[in-house]
Amino acid sequence: MKIIAADVIVTSPDRNFVTLKVTTDDGLTGLGDATLNGRELAVVSYLRDHVAPLLIGSDAHRIEDTWQLLYRSAYWRRGPVTMAAVAAVDVALWDIKAKAAGMPLYQLLGGASRSGLLSYGHASGKTLDELFDSIREHLELGYRAVRVQTGVPGLKSIYGIASNATFEANSGVRYDHEPAQRGARPAEEDWDTRSYLRHVPGVFEAVRNEFGPELPLLHDGHHRMTPIQAARLAKSLEPYDLFWLEDVTPAENQEALRLVRQHSTTPLAIGEIFNTVWDYQTVIREQLIDYVRSAVTHTGGITHLRKVLDHAAQYQIKSGMHGPTDISPVGMAAAMHLGLSIHNFGIQEYMQHGARTNEVFRQSFTFSGGMLHPGDAPGLGVELDVDEGGKYPYERAYLPYNRLADGTVHDW
Ligand SMILES: [Mg+2]
Questions:
Q1: Which residues are catalytic?
Q2: What is the distance, to the nearest Å, from the Cα of residue 2 to the centroid of all Cα atoms in its chain?
């Protein structure tokens, strides 16, 4: 089964998505998500100019060999652009192989290990009242777990809270929080770690008082703390029994989590900006984390992320795959097939896409009672309507960045 075409499709129905479509000589097609939020066109060029010519004429069934060829023959390997491109090829080939077998992809990955995937959504509010309303909305949608992010007194605009500007920039499309804004320049947000550390424990106390002890609650520190600040945050949130605390320190410094572990039993999650199994060596081997946050889309596809998760499984570390709206429906479907098949599934992040996105990407997966399932259509179960997608050309969009009160650039 030879590959005869590898087309890169860019569409921006509610936000930018990059999709690779691979076609074989017997007429099968496979899709892979290559969306890298805020740097989308770099992956388009990598795929179109450097990878697609290598694929034409090669055997679509040789998934592992193709992965190793793309990774090792580049020489300048790893990194988000390379690994998103490799991921797109890998997932497209898995889609094709499963279609050729006439099976949903999870069957080829070993079959279902569970009946559905526990998912969490993003509840947020500038104030406690807004936050409580958002949590109730999520519970009404069926979610059985929620991430909780709030405004901090004295800060105008911070990560995790949908701002009016973002809402308008996205044409009023409902997002729990879509940080990438269309425009010529990234938005500037503000940050003060001491204010945040004082405020957050009271928020979780109020949420527990309102919603009780059962509801799994998650929180994202988004890489902003020093190691000792992160340790203090994890310790101060212990009484509220978080499902996990995410990205408490910048991801480059894996050893920072040793200090956090020494001070707290709050479960930790990290890895949404990691790209390879090698990025996880220290945190898995030293058992510094409890959940792996990588997305299929940014970690070299199903072939490579499964290796990360198998390594993690030896230490009882579970999956918590990244799933905000910049993971396209193709990337989400790949995560669901992988999550359904592995033993050490933990939870799946799931922000719901807008109506225009759902018109462009026809999906077979379901969300019911807080649980996702990839469906039983052959392959990934997602098809891209190229004509519909063509109505929405790329629009430049950037993630915001942070400055402290004195003007210093800070981790966003
Ligand atoms: Mg995160």
A1: 159, 222
A2: 31
Cα gap 70→296, rounded to integer Å: 16
pLDDT at 157: 79
Element (H, E) at 197: helix 193-211
Tokens at residue 390, please?
């063509």
Residue length, the chain?
412
- Output DSSP code: residue 50: I
Beta bridge partners of 182: 397
Distance 386 CA to ligand 1 centre (A): 30
Question: Quick check: 260 and 285 in contact, CB under 8 A?
Answer: no
Task: Choose the CATH number for 117-379 among 3.20.20.120, 3.40.109.10, 3.40.50.300, 1.10.760.10.
Answer: 3.20.20.120
* 244 CA to centre of ligand 1 in angstroms: 11
- Cα–ligand 1 centroid distance for 159 (angstroms): 10
**Positions in the chain whose pLDDT score sits under 70:** 162-177
Q: What is the CATH number of domain 3-103?
A: 3.30.390.10
**Tell me, what's the pLDDT at 172?**
47
- Please, are residues 250 and 215 in contact by the beta-carbon 8 Å criterion? no
**pLDDT at residue number 178:** 77
110's CB contacts (< 8 A; 6+ apart) are 341, 342
